[in-house]
Design brief:
The protein has an eight-stranded parallel beta sheet. Strands 1, 2, 3, 4, 5, 6 and 15 form a seven-stranded mixed beta sheet that branches. The protein folds into two domains: 87 residues, Urease, subunit C, domain 1 (Roll), CATH 2.30.40; 295 residues, Alpha-Beta Barrel (TIM Barrel). α5 links the parallel β10 and β11. Helix content is 34%, strand content 22%. It has 15 helices and 15 strands. By secondary structure, it is an alpha/beta fold. The protein starts with a strand and ends with a helix. The longest helix is centred in the N-terminal third of the chain and has 17 residues. The structure holds zinc ion. Zinc ion (ZN) binds next to loops. The site of zinc ion has 6 residues, from loops.
Length: 398
């Protein structure tokens, strides 16, 4: 794959390639991209600038957005068996993660950040449970949201989590902001989830949560008394005031008031039509990780159902503990293979502008228009039409 990520600079630059993608819906032939002061300043058909940089016969396109990663788990690549079931996988993951140690975990995350950028990603929605990736991301060229994840029932921890929410640095692009995530409806108390969501909202940050992923989650929220309920009791967690029973995880979060357009719900592989209606009504943002879902659960999210309701799902890769790469080109190719009815332009939007919207980065990321951030991706390819280009990009035939 011949990809080049070009990060913006303050000086004026004019780039040219045979093709220029403003967004998946607009691909121009023989246009230029003018940039200055880290922003796109214009897209003229031709430029008389003497210092024009001709990149070649490929395409200049927006950087991709990976809306769900766990970079802290990068060291677990190829170390876990997906075939033993989700519960066994979680158990193995925690044991391996502890055995590896924080220094090796951080080193692997550092390398993976580099790899993400080489593979065309400009921003991430990073979920952190150990706090290892905040500094790594802050000093990288990646933008996005670093989510500090809360888990359990102890609301006292929240004050520690709130303190490091620095102000949004608008002078630096792409912006990297800090926020909070809840782990999942069945692992985190309603009180802690509500408090974390409220804090994120008050700081004008997105809030993220894994939702409708495991069978244990669905059973527990539906009111099953064994299994997960017993596990929480064995951990000393009092669930007597958790309003579970006769409902789905999506309906449960709706009742808790957690679903709105600044919440990013991740996975959604166990949803009914009613659940999708709730997500559409509340304008909840959605991120899907199909390769990870397929590996861990042999299930896939209902992309057609989401699209039919006018929703704009983003794509994520989850971690290297549950899939082979953090490349969105790989993720797009998997979506094309498993969802032949989804339009190629839609798949490309899922890996770009939809992720930017989900993370609060639009309109400056996800498109190349005047005033957008001037970081971009150049892909060397030989195609004779916009439709062919999108085919090549989404099938990872580049
Ligand atoms: Zn995750």
């Amino acid at each position: 794959m011949k990809l080049t990520c070009i990060l913006p600079v303050a000086e004026r630059n004019v780039f040219r390639a045979r093709w220029l993608m403003v967004g998946p819906d607009r691909i121009l032939e023989n246009s230029c991209l003018e940039t200055e002061n880290f922003r796109v300043t214009g897209i003229p058909g031709r430029s008389s600038d003497a210092n024009i940089r001709d990149l070649g016969g490929g395409i200049i396109m927006p950087l991709l957005v990976n809306a769900h990663t766990h970079l802290e788990l990068s060291a677990l690549k190829n170390r876990l068996d997906y075939t033993k079931g989700f519960e066994a996988w979680v158990k193995d993951l925690l044991a391996e993660r502890d055995a590896i140690g924080t220094e090796a975990l951080a080193n692997a995350a550092f390398q993976e950040i580099d790899d993400l950028m080489v593979n065309g990603t400009g921003a991430v929605g990073e979920i952190s449970t150990l706090g290892l990736t905040a500094n790594l991301l802050s000093t990288s060229g990646l933008g996005g949201v670093w989510f500090n994840e809360v888990l359990g029932s102890n609301t006292d921890i929240l004050s520690e989590y709130v303190a490091p929410l620095p102000d949004r640095n608008t002078s630096k692009m792409p912006a990297l902001v800090f926020s909070l995530a809840g782990h999942a409806p069945h692992t985190t108390s309603p009180e802690l989830l509500r408090s974390a969501k409220k804090t994120a909202f008050e700081h004008c940050r997105p809030f993220s949560i894994h939702l409708a992923e495991s069978q244990a989650e669905s059973d527990f929220i539906n009111g099953e008394k064994g299994g997960w309920a017993k596990f929480l009791a064995s951990r000393g967690i009092d669930i007597s005031d958790w309003p579970v029973g006769n409902k789905s995880p999506v309906a449960y979060l709706d009742e808790l008031g957690l679903l709105d357009e600044t919440t990013l719900a991740v996975h959604l592989i166990r949803t009914s039509g009613q659940d999708l209606d709730i997500l559409a009504r509340t304008r909840t943002k959605v991120c899907l990780c199909p390769r990870s879902n397929y590996n861990l659960h042999q299930r896939l999210p209902d992309i057609d159902g989401l699209l039919a309701r006018g929703m704009a799902p983003a794509l994520g890769t989850d971690s290297l503990a549950s899939c082979d790469s953090l490349s969105l080109f790989d993720e797009m190719a998997f979506v094309r293979e498993k969802y032949p009815g989804v339009a190629p332009e839609t798949v490309l939007s899922m890996a770009g502008i939809n992720g930017a919207k989900a993370l609060g980065l639009a309109p400056v990321m996800g498109r190349l228009e005047k005033n957008c951030w001037a970081g971009f991706l150049y892909v060397e390819l030989e195609s004779s039409s916009p439709a062919q280009i999108i085919e090549s990009l989404t099938f990872n035939e580049i």
